[in-house]
Amino acid sequence: MSKKLRPVLVGALGAASVAALVITTPAIAANEAPNTTSASVRAAGDLSVAAKKEIAMKLVSSAENSSLDWKAQYKYIEDIGDGRGYTAGIIGFCSGTGDMLELVEAYTNSVPDNPLAKFLPALRKVNGTDSHSGLGSAFESAWKQAAATSAFQTAQNNERDRVYFNPAVSQGKSDGLSNLGQFAYYDAIVMHGPGDSSDSFGGIRKAAMKKAKTPAQGGSETTYLKAFFDARKVIMKQEEAHADTSRVDTEQLVFLNAGNFDLHTPLKWKVYGDSYTIN
Fold first, then answer.
1. Catalytic residue list contains 64
2. What is the torsion angle, in degrees rounded to the nearest 10, for the CA atoms of residue 222, residue 227, residue 233 and residue 235?
């Protein structure tokens, strides 16, 4: 499994912190009105449409799990030795970065009598570290037991959407991006985490906007996405676990160069040397 993870998030990601992400589009000056008549400006897509969202899940899973079967990852859990403790589930929730804790808390709120509830005190203690204290094989077994239930699968879906998918798509729409552009945002926030630091999704977006205007600002989406990819690759190469940039070079850039802004199928791409197709 060629699991690639985002850098450690700073603390737990509560609802308020997500709402406060510095990823909003800066105001456009009065003398810099969007060029809405430009042929380079296209209508924003909607990656949340069921068929497109399914494509997005498969694309991310090809990079995160070396498989298009993203639903098979609900039960996944292991420590891959990256300093983030356990990595688990459909989006790589980590015991050391806060999002796993929030997931189990949300799951327990909806299903109090669940296999993971008793591990909440331990998850709170290890948050921010790579420790397995109070977890271990018993926790791994409990995770897999919970993952066989629709309730925990739903909880994983909800947290994925709350922390990653919905913020990325919302920002993509605000920036006037197509389905491809919104997916580029989603893939980046999965790997790099939300926030406004230079190595987070928000920081990457800021760096790209220094080089090119978004479509919402009257810019070319092609030009902007290339700037976004370049900015992201700079950050990816700063960490060994992310140094392979093929999920940009032989996936997203392939779609961009083909002009496939709507992510029409069939889609063919490579990640980490492996070939994939969605018909």
1. yes
2. -140
